[in-house]
Amino acid sequence: MTDPAAPVRVSHDRGIAVVTLDSPHNRNALSSALVSGVRAALDEAAGAPGTRAVLLTHTGNTFCAGADLTERHPTGPAELTALLRALVESPKPVVGRTTGHVRAGGLGLLAACDIAVAGPRATFAFTEARLGLAPSVISLTVLPRMRPRDAERYYLTGEVFDADQAVRTGLVSAGDEALDGILDGLRAASPQGLAESKRLTGAAVLRSFDRDARVLAEQSARLFASAEAAEGVRAFLERREAPWAL
């Protein structure tokens, strides 16, 4: 039975393992407990013969706000890389569903899903550059999905964009209204057919891990350790503008 106080809940719905991010007090940020909870849920689903797919969803008005900047020992680039790779390598297809806000590392989580849907109130933003950081590790899953010109714009500006634009950029597969049909299609498929089809579609993303993961993790660690990022994070937590904002 899932611990009611845990930040991740797991339930089952006709062959779909529903993994719910349930830490609304910190906007489902990537705390160590949340990351380990998602990893455990993926492992459980992988070993369940009756499970056809995983639905990764959330409670509250935010799918995931990215790193938990309030943790004493926040999730590092190695842990985030491992989580993203686990989503991509899972033999069971993963469908990400957001009906709320997705920020920073949460975009990497959504992009790691094989299929992603978004409701009309969903919003998206790469906020890292405004904090003195960069979308380093999440680029492993984001850049293979997004159109290059869109990635350039939103990485650099930190602008908020909506669900329709997320679909146009390739970050999201479809609107939330498509979810039932997607899940029914997955339920109709064979376990072997799903696993082998996913192996084909995920190959390019896994190549990005093999090629770039170490360098991007090093970049992330270097930026988080910088004085400029420390000031950016302080400004964010104190809800004030960073000193470089004009």
UniProtKB/TrEMBL annotation:
Spell out the Pfam families in the cross-references: ECH_1
List the coiled-coil residues: none
Stored SUPFAM superfamilies: ClpP/crotonase
Question: What CDD domains does the record point to?
Answer: crotonase-like
In terms of InterPro entries, this protein maps to: ClpP/crotonase-like_dom_sf (IPR029045), Enoyl-CoA_hydra/iso (IPR001753), Enoyl-CoA_hydra_C (IPR014748), Enoyl-CoA_Hydratase/Isomerase (IPR051683)
**Family named by the database record:** Belongs to the enoyl-CoA hydratase/isomerase family.
What is this protein called in UniProt?
Enoyl-CoA hydratase family protein
Name its species: Streptantibioticus parmotrematis
